[in-house]
Amino acid sequence: MTGFIGNIGRQTIKSVDHFLGLFAFVFRMLALLCRRHKEGRKMLYRTTVKQIYFTAIQALPVVVFISLVAGSIVIIRSVGYSELVEDPAVLNDLIVFTIIRQSGPLFVAIIVILRSAIAITVEAGYMTILKEIDSIEMMGIDPVFAVCLPRLLGITTAMLCLFLVFDIAAIFGGYAIAWTATNIPLDNFLSGVGKSITPSDIIAPILKAIFFGVIITANCLYRGLNVNHSITEIPQACSKAAVECLLYCMVVNIFVSAIFYL
Amino acid sequence: MELIRLLDYSLKGPGGVAALQEINFSLNRGDMVSIVAHARDDVRLFMRGLASLVYPTNGKFFFQGKEFNFSDYRNLLPYKQQVGYIASDVSFISNRSVSGNLMFMVNYFENRFPTTLSDDIMKLCRMFHLDEKLNLRPTYLDPENMRIAIIIREVCKRPDILLIDRPKEFLGPKSFDTFKSVLRGLADTGVTLVFHALDEDFVKEFSTREIVIEEGKVVSREAVSKCSILSKVKKGEKYNHRNT
Using the beta-carbon criterion (under 8 Å), do A132 and B108 form an inter-chain contact? Predict the structure, then answer.
């Protein structure tokens, strides 16, 4: 019994320590972001652009494909029920709710976690183990500025772009697929969906993209940079980082949705 | 002028074992200090401590009269910029080419991305026959060339203090003589040198002082050798990389 309670206590202390460290790390990155830097500006800009390329541009085919599949399924299923519903605006609301508010952000978050989050955890882990972080410090350069900040900016910007791409591709592409592949009546579909979009549907995804970008980058880098002793810790850090990112993104998704839509 | 002073400085080794205890050590500008120790781990830890890559468990570290605050690693960055650290646990950034690594500080501190390396870096690259491998990623270099590249990077930092761990074993005999000639040039500029070497000739040539690490304590011996470099410098002889 004592061992069990002790174990709970140790795990609690470990979790609290992890969260405090993570928040301190996020704060440090955000503080760096707010400061005007004389040195390293061009390097920051270049690395950020590269990160946007890796996270957003290279992920476009996957994001577009998934958005088309998701969009066409939702649209075909929703419009298929149009005869059962008196007010067609309800179906438009349902499409906006499913694609823009809920599935879009989560699908994009999952794609970014699978593609980029794990990659940056591995990269940060290797840089720590192979003493590359020490080498950057020995040059008098803050590794948080040189390594972490560009990834934070790049991934957050990429998230915003991918949200937009996902929503547009899901609605327009889904509409095009439903129009060409089925005989379902789609009169006034796009204008109806357009009318169902409220200002909250624009602000909430932007906030979600920013939060997701910060959560994914900070958590993965933090896990990667805390690899200390051996290379075998890197896969463990990756799996922890991926699961945590997904969990935190879902919690934030619910939280932001609750603030805007409840 | 005193550069570094360590007061009751203790460091823990890997695994948290107390390795170096209550070290008292001072280093003046232009000093050339050779470290002697039975335990190689102690030397490595001492070097890492001097490079501020490991933090003390207690004691004080003064650099140019100012005490370091180890609570935030950012306080140490300006110091680290002035330290050249040549040891087996130093590496290159693997997702940049060799030239990208050599230009990293220029990219960062000068906010520019030149397409060619500066003359002094190119000169060293030619001396060490690395000039044709500059576009390779570090992983494509063989270990000796990788170490040479590290030496070039550290030397081109124009450090105030140069820490070198077993240079002959680090480099291999082939490039060792070239390295010594580079070091003679640096000694000419008055760089402060702390090193651990097994090569007696190297120790004789480059050390003005010897410290011994015994059972986790640092003991400073009186000057063990007349430093040939310094004596020549005092006579006003200038060194040239190519001539030596």
Answer: no
Q: In what order do the strands lie in the sheet with B32-37?
A: B83-86, B161-165, B192-196, B32-37, B209-214, B217-221
Q: Which residues in chain B have their CB less than 8 angstroms from residue A139's CB?
A: 80-81, 104-105, 108, 157
Kindly state whether residue B41 falls inside one of the protein's structural domains.
yes
Whether A235 is covered by a domain: the verdict is: yes
Q: Is the pLDDT of residue B225 over 50?
A: no
B56 in any annotated domain: no
Q: Across the interface, do B53 and A137 touch by the CB < 8 Å criterion?
A: yes
Contact A138 B83 (CB under 8 A): yes
Contact at CB, B80 and A126, closer than 8 angstroms: no
Per-residue pLDDT tens over the stretch B26-59:
899 889 999 998 888 889 899 999 999 999 998 9
pLDDT single digits (tens) A81-96: 777 777 777 878 888 8
Q: How many CB atoms lie within 10 A of CB A1?
A: 5
* Length, in residues, of chain B: 244
Q: Is A233 helix (H, G, I), strand (E, B) or coil?
A: helix
B183-212 pLDDT per residue, tens? 998 888 888 999 999 888 899 889 888 989
- Comparing A167-176, A248-257, B100-109, which segment has the lowest mean pLDDT? A167-176
How far away is chain B from the Cα of A256, in angstroms, using its nearest Cα? 34
SS (H, E, C) A1-65: CHHHHHHHHHHHHHHHHHHHHHHHHHHHHHHHHHCCCCCCHHHHHHHHHHHHHHHHHCCHHHHHH
Close Cβ partners of A225 (under 8 Å, ≥ 6 residues apart): A124, A125, A127, A128, A133, A148
Assigned domain for B26 exists: no
Burial (CB count <10 Å: 0-12, 13-18, 19+), residue A240: middle
Q: Across the interface, which of B81, B93, B113 has its CB nearest the CB of A135?
A: B93
Q: Which domain holds residue B140?
A: 32-49+78-234
Distance CA A123, CA A117 (A): 10
B157: which chain A residues are within 8 Å (Cβ-Cβ)?
A: 139
Closest by Cβ to A140, choosing from B81, B95, B113: B81
**Do the interacting molecules here have an ipTM over 0.95?**
no
Indicate whether B239 belongs to any domain. no
Which residues of A are less than 8 Å from B74 in CB distance? 142
Q: The pTM is what?
A: 0.87
How big is chain A by its Cα radius of gyration, in Å?
A: 21
CATH at residue B200: 3.40.50.300
Distance from CA of A40 to the nearest CA of B (A): 4
How far apart are the C-alpha atoms of B153 and B157, rounded to whole Å? 6
